[in-house]
Amino acid sequence: MLKQPIFIVGHPRSGTSLVRSLIERSEHVWSIGREGKPIWERDGLHPSRRGWHSNALDASDATPEVAARLDADLLAAARRPGAEWSVDDKLDYLDFISAQGPQPYYYDVPLKALRQRFPGELPEGPPTTRDGGELDEITPFCFPPRGPRPTEAELADGIRLVEKSIQSCFRIPFLQALYPDAKYVFVVRDPRTSIGSLMDAWLNPRMFFSYPVPEPLRIKGYSDVFPWGKEWWNLSLPPGWRDWVDLPLAEVCARNWLAHNRAVLDAARALAPTGNSVLVRYEDVQADPVATMEAVAEAVDLPFADAWGRRDLPVVMTQTVPDPDKWRRHEQEIRQVLPLVADLAEEAGYDRA
């Protein structure tokens, strides 16, 4: 069974993968090693089964049947996090499986390393099923955890699973109904770097495709750039997304930041009196991971791990090396939309300027 699961909640490209990787250095947690979309969106919970409204779910969706199915699927996917994959490890694994058909360029490996090991023409466009449909997984595809599955005795005693999915921003009431004893780590990030990273995600020709939506997209800077840009929505699907289909890409990303972080801050405020949550800023994780993890460990009831005493951070990468100034590639467009997010940015602890 699951006990006190730890949900990491933040907008896409906010640093939730980094926080998850840090928590997974604890010997007391288990992981599914990837985004949970394939698990959460089965059996009627996919947006297509709900009028394409959004990724939002509430307590009424947490039926006994849904709860039992989710428990079974999460427990079946649980592994010990194990050692982190090196770039060479990833390339060796892709060497093995690419002979069986999977395309290496849709995996989370530095692009330069991929090109050295797998020369040839780069693929572009969303990866799909054999009939051209949506995959359960959102690229970049991840690598499985290396540790063992829980034993029957461990399952009977209850395991602590760490889970992070970008859609969770809009599902806190649903998660609370399913797991009343859950702990939450909310993550926020500076809107400038966030919006820049979101724009890079939308403009990546191989990554982050989530849904072929029924509403035609006319997003300037995306729909007029790629042949798939008139149909494929990227990352999570926030409430109100249909109102954004005629906006420029920078504004779509700014409104994404606004919608996700409004939900995050509201949930963090509501849960603060319970002592079952903590709100962290990505910048604080980068600047002082030891102090940040001390606060996280206390909030989620984990013993402080020796590994958190190191200042080295896991490398979370999507084909390009992390760089705090990457957003400046879109600086002019981002500065034009910053007024949209200024109030909420200040509420999240960022300078309005």
From TrEMBL:
Any Pfam family: Sulfotransfer_3
SUPFAM superfamilies: P-loop containing nucleoside triphosphate hydrolases
Keyword annotations of the record: Transferase
GO terms assigned for molecular function: protein-tyrosine sulfotransferase activity
Tagged with keyword 4Fe-4S: no
InterPro entries: P-loop_NTPase, TPST-like
Protein name: Sulfotransferase
Taxonomic source organism: Streptomyces showdoensis
